[in-house]
Amino acid sequence: MNIYEIAAEAGVSISTISRVINSPEKVSPKTRKRVEDAFVRNNYVPNALARSLVKSSSKNVGIISSEIRNLYYATAAHVLEDCFFKWGYTSFLCPTGGSLGRKLEYVRILAEKQVDGLVLVGSAFSVPEIEASVQKYLSGTPIIAINGWLSAADAHTVSVDHAAGAELILDHLTERGYKNIYFACCTRNQNSAKKKEALSSAIRRRGLPMNAQENIFQLEPGYDAVHAFAEEFLPLARQHSAVIFSNDISAGYGLLAFRELGLSVPRDVGIVGYDNICYPNLHFPDVTVLDTKIELLSSLAANTLHDIFIQRDVGRGISIPPELIVRSST
């Protein structure tokens, strides 16, 4: 039986076998025992050739992104690939759309490619099914999640500080005199949930009205859904009202929809977007946005993974502050 068959039987990656043979202290006791039991069952004794084999690097990394048509994710993929290319690594870019099945299949395929590491872009991967798949196929392989959270021992997170972002937005809106503040969420994932939680807390701390059923709207993506929301919002568009959209694409749609319905921005309603990635300054008036620093997050993710490759110590998580860019929509 060869090293690859041992890895398959133990349900781990080649890199995990490498750690068990060469650096067992870096492997969890449970995983190490599973591999060692597979050695015993098959009378497998790692020899010098096997040690050399499993110590080698494939010089490949995986990048799984839920959506690359969105400029936010495309920017992340570009920055990641550029960083890894400079270090001599080949990137396998795996766009999954909204398909959980495709996400799971790409985890398996990247394990077959023996990637040295994996970057997950977005919190759509922070679900039990992905956790289980990662544990099954990529146990022991370092994983970096951008704005996502995994409990695996080899998983690390780089994320934006949503609480700090909510404080920046609310400080600005209240300084401008807005008293009725609403959140239009156009995605359904853990990252959006964190935005909701942070904004709700920041609004309540200022003694402003906050009722989840009245102040938070869950929208489908796309202009039609945002326009329908704008029509529903008309009775609420009284003086001192502002809408925070969960991304700047939707904020741009909201601006167009409100104008089409005869509202003036920012006189009748203020608009704030998230991300600062889809050139909101092309709209008039310019949209105020919370810059969530996707280029910096992606660079940090790449550098964290590279640090792991060269055996530098890294923490489990990095959180960076966002920046509010004030324009004429508020």
Describe this structure in words.
This protein is α/β, with parallel strands linked by helices. 46% of the residues lie in helices and 17% in strands. It has helices at residues 3-10, 14-22, 29-41, 48-55, 71-86, 100-112, 128-137, 162-175, 190-205, 212-215, 223-233, 248-260, 294-309; strands at 60-65, 90-95, 117-121, 143-146, 155-160, 180-185, 216-218, 241-245, 270-274, 288-291, 317-320, 323-325. A 6-stranded parallel sheet has the order 2-1-3-4-5-11, sandwiched between helices.
Estimated helix fraction: 40-55%
Model regions low in confidence, pLDDT < 50 over at least 5 residues: none
> How confident overall, as mean pLDDT?
89
* Relevant CATH superfamily of the largest domain: Response regulator
N/C terminus separation: 67 Å
Number of spatially distinct domains: 3
- Derived from helix and strand composition plus strand pairing, the structural class reads alpha/beta
Question: What would you call the shape?
Answer: elongated
